[in-house]
Amino acid sequence: MVRLVQVSASYPQQTTRVLKDISFHVLKGESVALIGANGAGKTSLLLALTGILPICHGSIFIDGAELSKRNGQVAQRKTGLVFQNPDDQLFMPRVYDDVLFGLLNRGIAEEEAESRAREMLDRLGIGHLAERSPSRLSGGEKRLCALAAVLVMEPEILLFDEPTAFLDPKARRTVGALIQALPHTKLIATHDLDFAQTLCSRALILCSGALATDDAPATLFTDSVRMTEWGL
Ligand SMILES: Nc1ncnc2c1ncn2[C@@H]1O[C@H](COP(=O)(O)OP(=O)(O)OP(=O)(O)O)[C@@H](O)[C@H]1O
Ligand SMILES: [Mg+2]
């Protein structure tokens, strides 16, 4: 479903590579954790997967279609990124407008878009927040709204950047259960090892922009010597 072949990338005007020769494969329906110290390249990798960060070497395939080629837009539509900071994702005056925005932008008729937006808010149990301003919500509420804005676009692959950051234990459980129940192919960048172990059957460890290893979370997280080597 997601395949990277020797992918390298740099930010504009930077000479150092932020992603270095990364190859891996995620199967349809799999949940994979992306683990690494601050600055290891997790967010950059998710940005590369959505086409926001252009790659300078290698290839990314989404459901068999290469991301950077002519059909890139089709491939891009298959992925949805829930940002590390919901404030980077929610920018409209009302939650409802944020959920509606992507649908209208994609050219979906107003009536259908409106019913899909309302339905998604209700499905996530946040219908009562529809008329509220995203900037005045709690961290957990914002995260659910950001998730609604992504899910409503019906992506097949969900990319989560630190989905439990800033959440209290209860909100963490709510968001965790919600993510776990989604049938999508998922790639989850997180510092929360318990969360990764509960939700994911595999973990990729990123270290200074390179893929250090790819194994079962339980195997990796109990190897204290290697965890220290990876800065974890
Ligand atoms: N817009 C940017 N321009 C230039 N360099 C950047 C940019 N964003 C991130 N970087 C650099 O790329 C490297 C990887 O950053 P990235 O945000 O991908 O790490 P991360 O693993 O997500 O870290 P964290 O756990 O802190 O979120 C860091 O050295 C960072 O300084
Ligand atoms: Mg990050």
Describe this structure in words.
This protein is of the alpha/beta class and 232 residues long. The chain has 2 domains: 1-78 and 155-232, P-loop containing nucleotide triphosphate hydrolases (Rossmann fold), CATH 3.40.50; 83-153, no CATH class. 36% of the residues lie in helices and 24% in strands. Strands 6-7-8-3-9-10 form a 6-stranded mixed sheet, sandwiched between helices. The protein has a 4-stranded antiparallel sheet with strand order 2-1-4-5. Strand 9 and strand 10 (210-215) form a beta hairpin. Helix 3 (95-105) packs parallel to helix 5. The chain is globular, with a radius of gyration of 18 Å. The relative contact order is 0.18. The model has no long low-confidence stretch (mean pLDDT 93). Bound molecules: adenosine-5'-triphosphate and magnesium ion. The site of magnesium ion has 4 residues, from helix 1.
Instruction: Give the biggest sheet.
Output: 6 strands, mixed
Radius of gyration: 18 Å
The chain-level structural class is: alpha/beta
- Proportion of residues in extended strands: 15-25%
Based on DSSP secondary structure assignment, what is the total number of beta strands?
A: 10
Assembly state here?
single chain
CATH architectural category of the largest domain: 3-Layer(aba) Sandwich
- Domains counted in the coordinates: how many? 2
CATH T-level topology of the largest domain = Rossmann fold
Uncertain parts: none
Question: What integer is the average pLDDT?
Answer: 93
SSE ordering: EEEHEEHEHHHEHEHEEHH
Any idea what the shape is? globular
Q: Quickly name the level 1 CATH class of the largest domain.
A: Alpha Beta
CATH superfamily descriptor of the largest domain: P-loop containing nucleotide triphosphate hydrolases
| Order of strands, widest sheet | 6-7-8-3-9-10
Helical segment tally? Answer: 9
> Which ions, cofactors or small ligands are bound in this entry?
adenosine-5'-triphosphate, magnesium ion
- For the termini, the CA-CA separation is 28 Å
Q: Can you give the helix content as a percent range? A: 25-40%
